[in-house]
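Students often ask what a holo structure prediction actually looks like on paper. The answer is less mysterious than it sounds. You provide the chain, you provide the ligand, and the output is a string of discrete structure tokens encoding the 3D arrangement of the protein together with zinc ion.
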Amino acid sequence: MGSSLNKSLVALAFAASFSASAFHNTSQKFELSGEIKQGGLIVGKTLPNNTVTLNGKVITVSRNGDYTFGFSRDDKQRYQLVITAVNGDRVTKTLIPSIREYNIQRIEGIKKSIMQPNPKSVARAQQDSKQVKAARKISSELGYFAQGFIAPIKGTITGVYGSQRVYNGVPKNPHFGLDYAGKTGDPVKAPASGTVLLWVPDMFYSGGTMIIDHGQGVSSTFLHLSNSYVKQGDQVKQGQVVAAVGKSGRATGPHLDWRINWFGVKIDPALVLKLQPLD
Ligand SMILES: [Zn+2]
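The corresponding structure tokens follow.
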């Protein structure tokens, strides 16, 4: 490892936060974009032949040298990101996602009938969940996650990532999407290019549900849709209208719930919108 690289490492370690940082030498390339915080997605670039590991687990590097990983809502781990060049040169960076505070809402006096759906609905919801989980496990070679994301609609944001309701003292699943106000039929655009992994018009909770693969485990999910203009297997371009806003499933009114995943890890879409593409 050259001394100029060591100096860059020291500079990087003292940077409080970064949206894009880089250092290079002849055998290595190390650039990261994204926020090291709970719910954050990190996009990195290195030389395509380099090996990337996160806490010892190999992360796929695309032909362009792009790779990605993310932190869950309540992630309290410490990560070692190691980039190893073909000649054995190695760079290690410690990443500690910063802790966030989420909006917790306590609600008392909710009737049992609302809290406990019937067994048939429970079975359907479990089947839906299996299908969604299976789709999100897919790791494709696509590298669209590295090209930046756009908001899928123009509506006002009405719900944020991480918020949680506690009914009668029982915490419900946190909200993982970014909710946008909208009218039924409003066009929904692909936030990034990709392949349609799943379209189911009538899931129990989430109604019309679409998942788009952006590559290497990064996917968008849209909930409560009223219509789809694409089908499973279709290639879509960033900005292409793929679906229509709705209130299908258990939605109180028409809105778009947009989610981002890195495999099973639920990412904050608001942070993904701030990602700067790397060159
Ligand atoms: Zn929502």
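Residues 85 and 198 are 37 Å apart (CA to CA).
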